[in-house]
Amino acid sequence: xxxxxxxxxxxxxxxxxxxxxxxxxxxxxxxxxxxxxxxxxxxxxxxxxxxxxxxxxxxxxxxxxxxxxxxxxxxxxxxxxxxxxxxxxxxxxxxxxxxxxxxxxxxxxxxxxxxxxxxxxxxxxxxxxxxxxxxxxxxxxxxxxxxxxxxxxxxxxxxxxxxxxxxxxxxxxxxxxxxxxxxxxxxxxxxxxxxxxxxxxxxxxxxxxxxxxxxxxxxxxxxxxxxxxxxxxxxxxxxxxxxxxxxxxxxxxxxxxxxxxxxxxxxxxxxxxxxxxxxxxxxxxxxxxxxxxxxxxxxxxxxxxxxxxxxxxxxxxxxxxxxxxxxxxxxxxxxxxxxxx
Length: 341
What we know:
This protein is α/β, with parallel strands linked by helices. Helices cover about 50% and strands about 15% of the residues.
């Protein structure tokens, strides 16, 4: 029924749908930036302050936003209504069709596509984070162990984490030990932040990266480390990102010889310290403690979060692992993926 109403609206009132999309877009920005001033919102949206003034006034009159001296925020009604409006915009803009096409093409459990391209607009990464938190909360029953990987996208998920009753008895753990990331992007840091924002519990894995094989074997045999690794590898839920191979190698200050190997073997994607070529074959692996690729096949819920058109090749390569994933991505990556596929 919804589809038929939207089709009628597209024919009779195309302007109405464009206006609705624009207003939802404004509300989405306010949700992730609140409290936000008009000038800052105007810059982020790429809309002139003059045009934005009229839209903001309309949204205020409809009791969807508050305007304070500190900036604009969503009202309770705005926060409640926005998810329903987003669903309608998904239908209108074809995001629902993209989700279904990608789900079939990549053979996944579920695909969620948020509007925008995180390569172009930093706020889209926050929308990916919000969608991930929402997806996670829908799957929690209580007492789960959630393993969290590192990276900038997972850091955005941590920023959007909010407490819920189901999270009170969950345990957050890092999916892997150190991978040479900056401290704010390391799994330990993100795991602790998520747990604190969820008002839940966490344990940290203190295993450094760049160890010799002998030192590595010695550390993982320590009883406390061994016990924690068992907890991590038998998690109920895993949250992780997917990286572009070259970007990840640079960010982790990878030794020159390994960078050459990664480039020569045409790696395009990275996850959990594994580097993949376009066929999804592992061409290089960083030795770290924690979840290994084989472990993912035994974990009931694996959620991958990755967006931006530049990530399409990496997502496609990684998804050839044939793990029953939920993929949360953005419009930029989805369009590029559908072209690639």
